[in-house]
Amino acid sequence: METLGFMLAALSPFNLLLAVAGVAAGIIIGSLPGLSATMAVAVLVPVTFGMPTESALILLGAIYTGAIYGGSYAAILVNTPGTPSAIATTFDGYPMARRGDGDLAVTLSTLSSVIGGLVGGLALFCLAPLLALVALKFGPVEYFWLAIFGLTLISSLSEGSTLKGFIGAGIGLLLSTVGVAVVGGDTRYTFGSQFLLGGVETISALIGLYCIPVLIELVATPSEHLKPPEASRGVRFREGVTLMFKGKWNALRSAIIGTIVAILPGAGGSIASLVSYSEARRASPRSEQFGKGEPDGIIATETANNATVGGGFIPTFVLGIPGTPPDAVILGALLVQGFRTGPEMFTTNASVTYTFMGGLLVATVLMLPIGLLIGRYAFKSIVSVPKAILVPTIAFMTVIGTYAIRNNPFDVVVMVVLGVAGWLLARWGIKPSPIVLGLILGPIAEQGFVQGYLMGNATGSVAGVFFGRPLSLGIIALTVLFALYPLWSARRKRTHGEVVAHEQST
């Protein structure tokens, strides 16, 4: 009962106001390319220093929740993920918007995000100490194999050629090696430029690879950017609920995947959404429709990446290890206020912890009306804005967003160069998603590999370190399975087509 009382404290007028403001601000910030969830949380940390700790956490958690969901707006309506975790949302969200169903796609994203957020929040409340033990089992080698698993997923999900997907992932890995090495401090591929010492900034690369090609295509094609709806259909809430009910098992599976992946520090929403998307595609009887505007694709990705919000706080609170970058910022805010993570969070500081958990659940529920309201007008605005205004507005936001990350004008140059290169590569069938994921997962893979290799040298068995642990073998088996699945699926379809053609000929 005491725990319930702490959680109900989140319903005080002041905390409710903070939750509403945080969700709305997070949605708007997350929908703008370059203004990620991490940046939104980091910028507002100083504002919280004068607040009670539980209220400060509720505000930061609400902003985080709203920003992760807000990234789907740009992914659906502009084919540009507002946050890295919304990359997979572009696969089916933008095709839906192109055929005039952008309003339905936004509604599905909202419903999925609320479900995923609630599952992640409830997991944080019910299973935090238990599930945090899983994170302790993961060492450097497991993170290396997990990164390889993530690269295999995005490559195998590439439209067209699997080989081109792997080529894109390889390009991303090469980009991730620019600058000072993660382990050892060696300087690589800077070509004498001090600006490249810090490497290729991930958000700048994401903006360039996704935004610039869209801008070029908008200028190059005379047709409308999005197909306007034939009549005013509102938010199409009933249709969205019907589709969610049909895909309830997909949503539940994706939420569980998102929560579990978030427990592993450093994995984050990008891997969670890709694993969920891959599983949804594998299990769906309409797998051939994925990538062409399949609603189940949006349900899978948005449920998973919002489940990472609650799931990521499990290792943050229990172990003091942030599950995602925004968790690291919120952990810093906790430490500034004099709180220590670990068992004390659930004993001495239980009132703060459980009030925050209640606030996170409240913010997730508030995301439904606020998201539907903002999403409705966002879709109408994007559809009705002429290209002559839309293109320079997006271009301006990309430049400002890129510069604001590190206040470095060279990042803008990198963004433009990668954008043009991404446009050229897309014309050859190499999509931006494998490149971006290679860039994100590259440092994780490199750090895990180097540390594992050093451990192997110290013990006299490098192979034993990489292939001798049950968790590693399990991840390797999944990697091989997902790498071979597209080839097996294509061969099965080809064989089936030959059988059908033979039967028709006879």
Automatic annotation (TrEMBL):
The keyword Metal-binding does not apply. InterPro entries: DUF112_TM. Residues 16-437 form the DUF112 domain. The chain crosses the membrane at residues 16-45, 57-76, 114-136, 143-160, 166-183, 195-216, 255-277, 354-379, 385-405, 412-430, 471-488. It holds the Pfam family TctA. Keywords: Membrane, Transmembrane, Transmembrane helix. This is Tripartite tricarboxylate transporter permease. It comes from Salinicola corii. The lineage of its organism: Bacteria, Pseudomonadati, Pseudomonadota, Gammaproteobacteria, Oceanospirillales.
